[in-house]
Amino acid sequence: MIVCSTAALAEQLAAARRQIDAALDRYTELSRGCSARLRDAMRYSLLAPGKRLRPTLVLFAAEACGSTWEAAIPAACAVEMIHCYSLIHDDLPAMDDDDLRRGRPTCHKAFDEATAILAGDALLTLAFETVATDVQPPEVAARCCAALGKAAGATALVGGQADDLELQNSVGDLATLEYIHSRKTGAMFLVSLQLGGFIADADETRQSAIEQFGRKIGLAFQIADDLLDVQGDEATMGKRVGKDSEHGKLTFPSIMGIAESQQRAQRLIDEACAALEPLGEKRTGLEALARYVVERNQ
Questions:
Q1: What residues of the chain score a pLDDT lower than 70?
Q2: Would residue 195 count as lying in a domain?
Q3: Which among 64, 79, 170, 265 would be 20 to 30 A from 196, CA to CA?
Q4: 10, part of any domain
Q5: Strand partners, 101
Q6: Short-list 129, 149, 231, 233, CA closest to 195
Q7: pLDDT at position 1, please?
Q8: Which pLDDT belongs to residue 247?
């Protein structure tokens, strides 16, 4: 796959979403042993229209390192399940208290708080079941589970979320903000690239290249997200805008200003793309995806 143009990237993203969505649908049929209400809540959030950016990174990374989308689909779905669980819990009244996600009422609004909590819990555990069962060979599945557990855990995603909540209405600096988001947001971007490399059995040079890429674009994505919260349109984004300032959260625009935040995001993307040089021509798809991260409007 060599993606150069915007149109070509859009076509690849659409193809990735179709494959990911079809697989997510299969994984959440759950006809036996799962209450209908819980299953409906899981599927309501997981199958809602979305960019599928993180699972697409798994597919693109696997292919760039010599594997296939088919081999990477279970890991890609697991990443999306964990991402969705984090959004369900993040939207709860005790956390960010949001009532709109992906253009629809959040899970706890569409169902209730208890069901939303359980739906998030179920998606988190289903992610690990999916990897352990369907990623091959077993030693690669174990490696993927360990990486996912670390990325979603107390020192990464959950730890970053805890710090983000603790520092609401506080004065912070750029280093603190970057440390929070290297875990809260960046960890899931990084692990998406890692899993793609693991599945492709990438050598040390290629694995290092895609991991460097992952660290850079994760932070760039968060800066772009913060900018959209200031400048974005609610109808286009499918979620409330301006909520970060309402909650007194540290953001890149609040610390650096809009113009400098935009420049910082662009520098990170340039550095991310430069890190991919060892992949040769196979890096083109990941490069195009990186540009999309800062140019998107939702």
A1: 1-5, 169, 171, 232-248, 297-298
A2: yes
A3: 265
A4: yes
A5: 104
A6: 149
A7: 46
A8: 59
Q: Which domain holds residue 93?
A: 6-295
Rounded Cα gap, residues 122 and 134, in angstroms = 18
In a domain, 168, yes or no: yes
Q: How many residues does the chain have?
A: 298
Contacts for 26-29: CB closer than 8 Å, 24+ residues apart: 27/77, 27/81, 27/126, 27/130, 28/126
Q: How far is CA 128 from CA 77, 78, 131, 147, in A?
A: 10, 7, 5, 11
CATH classification at residue 215: 1.10.600.10
Angle between helices 53-64 and 69-90 (to 10 degrees): 150
Structural domains of the chain, count: 1
**Is 1 inside a domain boundary?**
no
Tokens of 115: 């069901």
CA pair distance 293, 184, nearest whole angstrom: 17
